[in-house]
Amino acid sequence: MRSKILPLLILFVITANNVMSQIVIDTNAKVEEIVTGIEQPEGPVWKEGVGLLFSDIKGNKICKWTPEQGKEIFLDPSDSTNGLTYDLEGRLIAGQMGLRRVVRFEKDGSQTPLAEKYEGKRFNSPNDLVVKSDGSIFFTDPDFNIPGGPKNKELTFNGIYRISPSGSIQLLDKLELPNGICFSPDEKKLYVNDSRVHKIYVWDVVDDSIIANKKLFYTIPVNGYADGMKVDEDGNLYVTCSSAVWIVSPEAKLIGKIDLPSNVSASNCAWGESDNKTLFITAGHSVYRVRPIITSNKSDDSFPTGYELYQNYPNPFNPTTKISYVIPVASHVTVKLYDEIGREVVTLENSEKPAGIHTLNFSAETLSSGVYYYKLIAGNYSALRKLVLLK
Question: Which positions carry the signal peptide feature in this UniProt record (predicted)?
Fold first, then answer.
């Protein structure tokens, strides 16, 4: 199929908030329809070397798209998979609504159920999910796709859950209709859409395993259906609702909107391609892609007053990622990478740096998949964070 280029209409909002003094969106970006003829596309996920996978819920398939081959069938039947992601070992994880479970697809083709019941009762219809850097899986379980209809609902609520690395299942919170789910880049915040009221809620992530301090983060200003969402490296949320993707800053300000054809309903989105800058969007009966490059300039009032090492983004990554840090005064900075048992692998930075925010572009093309750690030393400050290379 020949791809179709569509106009891109972006609503600009320049905020008065001190944290975000200027927003710049690439006005040359165009929305491109790359796949059509899908019954109900959902759950896109990109993996370098594989391409884009996405669910066709009503078609009961998982499809694959690459620039070279176009659309192919990846799995048929799929038991009505919805959200898709990868775990730290590169295995596909899915919300499998037809069997009311979260499942892992092993590399030999077999399927391993990860979550089927909570306190002896079957889940409703596991929808969307996200993997944390410690290997735990957070997922939403609304009730709008229960096989056989509402009469088969066993739980009396719709929940947000966590599957620990050891496999235990934990109810984190309840929501009217939980759907799209994602972390902030540093994984300190968890965002979840409540589809029925087109609202986004945010929680603090405590000790990697508990969410607390629930707050209403943003209400999408249309009577649409808030569905899947993703976050970019600056913490901006990309939320699918109605016939658009709404771009909301970490300060809960609307900073942009990617319009799709008015007769489609956007269902989910995912970052992809080699630099992780292309946004793939499932909507209507099609899949679209666009490169909505956003940069934000910080005002002087928001300049950090302390040292900080940020979580790399993306994480997991393959093979490139960004590592950012803040130094409030000019300092000699070293950033080193270590393997899982503490052996030094490479020095990423070893020089004098002026005060400010700095970003390293790190390529792990020559390294093997696995868990690594990066350490910043600047002045009397040091910090260590984990990153995961997934090839």
Answer: 1-21
